[in-house]
Design brief:
Layout lengths: L3 E9 L5 E10 L4 E5 L6 H9 L6 E6 L2 E2 L10 E4 L11 H11 L4 H15 L14 H13 L5 E5 L7 H18 L2 E6 L2 H7 L2 E6 L2 E6 L1 H6 L4 H6 L6 E10 L2 E8 L2 E7 L1 H5 L10 E6 L4 E4 L7 E10 L3 E8 L5 E7 L9 E6 L5 E4 L12 E9 L4 E4 L2 E4 L2 H6 L7 E9 L13 E12 L3 E8 L2 E10 L8 E6 L5 E4 L16 E8 L5 E5 L2 E5 L6 E6 L5 E4 L10 E4 L3 E4 L3 E6 L8 E6 L10 E5 L5 E4 L1
Parallel strand pairs: 3-8, 3-9, 6-7, 7-8
Antiparallel strand pairs: 1-2, 1-4, 4-5, 9-10, 11-12, 11-14, 12-13, 14-20, 15-19, 16-17, 16-19, 17-18, 21-22, 21-24, 22-23, 24-29, 25-26, 25-28, 26-27, 30-31, 30-33, 31-32, 33-40, 34-39, 35-39, 36-37, 37-38
Helix pairs in contact: 2-3, 2-4, 3-4, 4-5
Length: 624
């Protein structure tokens, strides 16, 4: 039994591939966590870091509150089951399972006891004296699991363990592994690219893309409240229908107007979806509208709001039929799921309606969910840097000096921003004195199997915010006080491209330099081992030199290096903000560390020094 915690974990492979970027996650004891995402998104790398098979480039990995970065794999009390389980063909099942224990010099009696117990759990008792070649694929996979079980690990790691099995076996092994988890009551971490495995097995699912976590949630929340277009389209088969649309108010109703080429189509939007918008400023704007094929159902021609669609292609799957259709007289395609018994053929016209409560809305630019949030709220706010406050609704969040020093320089004024509050960060009781307090009214209650999701209204804020509690009794209309620990609040720019408060304070990027004039009349700026040359019309002499963090451009191709205006050094730390990465370096000639703004894929975790072109026009010189 064990819990796991990832704290700012990075993995950068030699050559500079960022396989995992700033992973922050807690996995509770006895959880069944599934990492899912397309090939190459960093799932296996994460698993291998837990196992200790891959060095952690930066950050801390905790098992049960102990940092294990440098603990060797065999001392981590973890076992791993791989996709390619290699059994010893010349040994019996018993000996295959016993092998690891014998190597670890576990007494014979104890080995026997553990194997009998594991064989019982896995239904392998009748096969213990057989050799692997006399077993089916599923039985062999169970032997591989048996080898892990007898080690009595604190954490079970499974890396696509079912992908070599045929479809039927995969289905039965899925439920066997789920049952195994229930019996063993230990933490399972499972990696797969298969969304069905993820949805059916995980108690918590972590969706990854390009090394970055997209959403961490229960299967039902992921399905009902995908955090962005990527998660929405990755989970669910066939994929969610997604359209470019405009969100409009018509009378006292709301519609999503889908546009494709010259055709348009209106989808009614439920009032709750509007109330759950993160901002009413989306009304009148272009958005992305999504509806799952299973939320579209067939109706009669004369039913109200019946939409005629023409069937293009059908796929009969037995219990259901997937119809690829087009809305009549438009270019708008619509995938619909029908009952398997329905008689339908290509070219048919059928009539459908939408479950409008299940229409998903996303921001057109950053593709994030904008209504019916389940994992995190993004709330429009203002930062007033001079006053040191962030305000939204009628609430002020005070920034202390340290926080202020961490704010990105371009946000040190008065700016519109977004604050992120995870839906599970709210408490009903005060924890610390500086907890943020909100007076709220419960407007909508959505109960799921595990949780209560409340949408609450705040004073001076029209749209609602989402709050998640353990399952309980909550009444619509009730007034409550919500407390939020300040560390759960994160500030982002308006477009959600970057976090605007870094992990480290901005020091000054300042040093002393000597300015000379060369024969061509150009200025030579000399500090430490660096020399920059440019036409700056400075008088010769000593200056204080301030290089703003955005004056550096990392260059990776030799021909793009501006020979006279570049610096080459090694960075030692970084902070991923989203679209940008802050890099930090210690250079002898600067009193303190310096900070550099770089792109998403730039990283300090490379073996070699990095070259940066410097924009001389951004440098500020002050004569000493
Ligand atoms: P997944 O398990 O999601 O398919 P991986 O964790 O295997 O993804 O890989 C994540 C990224 O890291 C990919 O871009 C992959 O090419 C790269 N990668 C994985 N292993 C290595 C390695 N040993 N050396 C260099 N790059 C690697």
């Amino acid at each position: 039994m064990a819990s796991l915690k990832f704290e700012h974990i990075y993995k950068v492979y030699e050559g500079g591939v960022k396989a995992v970027s700033d992973l922050n996650l807690e996995i509770k004891d006895n959880e069944f966590v599934v990492f899912v995402g397309p090939s190459g998104c960093g799932k296996s790398t994460t698993l291998r870091m837990i196992a200790g098979l891959e060095e952690i480039t930066s950050g801390n990995l905790y098992i049960d509150d102990k940092i294990v970065n440098d603990v060797s794999p065999k001392d981590r009390d973890i076992t791993m089951v791989f996709q390619n389980y290699a059994l010893y063909q010349h040994m019996t099942v018993y000996d295959n399972i016993a092998f690891g224990l014998k190597m670890a010099k576990v007494p014979k009696d104890e080995i026997k006891k553990r194997i009998e117990n594991a064989a019982e759990i896995l239904g392998l008792t009748p096969y213990l004296s057989r050799k692997p070649k006399a077993l089916s694929g599923g039985q062999r996979q169970r032997v591989a699991l048996g080898r892990s079980i007898v080690r009595e690990p604190k954490v079970f790691l499974l890396d696509e363990p079912l992908s070599n099995l045929d479809a039927k076996l995969r289905v039965s092994m899925r439920s066997e592994i789920t049952k195994l988890h229930r019996r063993l009551k230990t933490t399972f971490v499972y990696v797969t690219h298969d969304q069905t495995e993820a949805m059916t097995m995980g108690t918590i699912i972590v969706v990854m893309r390009n090394g970055v976590v997209q959403q961490v949630d229960t299967p039902s929340n992921l399905y009902d409240h995908p955090a962005n277009v990527f998660v929405a389209s990755f989970l669910g088969s066939p994929q969610m229908n997604l359209f470019n649309a405009k969100l409009l108010k018509e009378g006292n109703k709301y519609v999503g107007v889908i546009n494709k080429n010259d055709s348009t189509f209106k989808v009614h939007i439920h009032d709750n979806t509007i109330h759950q918008l993160i901002s009413y400023s989306y009304i009148g704007k272009d958005i992305i509208l999504g509806i799952r094929p299973e939320e579209i159902f067939e109706v009669n021609e004369d039913d109200e709001d019946a939409v005629p669609v023409i069937v293009d292609v059908i796929e009969k799957l037995g219990s259901e039929i997937i119809c690829y259709t087009q809305i009549e007289n438009t270019d708008i395609p619509l995938v619909v799921k029908l009952d398997g018994r329905k008689e339908v053929k290509e070219g048919d016209k059928i009539f459908v309606q939408f479950h409008t409560r299940h229409v998903h809305l996303f921001d057109k630019d950053n593709e994030r969910r904008i209504s019916g949030i389940s994992s995190e709220n993004y709330i429009k706010s203002k930062i007033d840097y001079d006053k040191g406050v962030v305000s939204f609704a009628n609430v002020d969040i005070k920034l202390n000096e340290e926080d202020k020093n961490k704010v990105l320089p371009e946000f040190r004024g008065s700016h519109d921003i977004l604050i992120k509050i995870p839906t599970n960060a709210f408490k009903l009781e005060k924890g610390k004195d500086d907890d943020l307090v909100l007076d709220a009214k419960i407007e909508i209650v959505e109960q799921s199997k595990e949780q209560s999701l409340l949408y609450v209204s705040l004073m001076h804020k029209k749209s609602y915010i989402a709050v998640k509690f353990n399952k309980g009794e909550y009444k619509e209309g009730e007034k409550i006080k919500l407390y939020i620990p300040l560390e759960n609040i994160t500030l982002y720019d308006e477009n959600l491209k970057n976090r605007i408060v870094s992990r480290f304070e901005f020091i000054s990027n300042t040093t002393k330099c000597l300015v000379k004039k060369n024969k061509k009349g150009l200025n030579e700026i000399i500090f430490g081992n660096f020399k920059l040359i440019g036409d700056l019309s400075l008088n010769e002499g000593e200056y204080n030199l301030f290089i703003p963090y955005d004056a550096f451009t990392p260059v990776n191709k030799r021909k793009e290096i501006n020979k006279h205006q570049c610096m080459k050094f090694k960075c030692v730390n970084e902070d991923s903000l989203g679209d940008n990465t802050l890099l930090y370096a210690n250079l002898d000639c600067f009193e303190d560390y310096i900070c550099i703004k770089a792109g998403k894929d730039d990283t300090c975790f490379k073996r070699n020094k990095q070259t940066f072109n410097i924009d001389l026009n951004k440098i500020i010189f002050t004569k000493i």
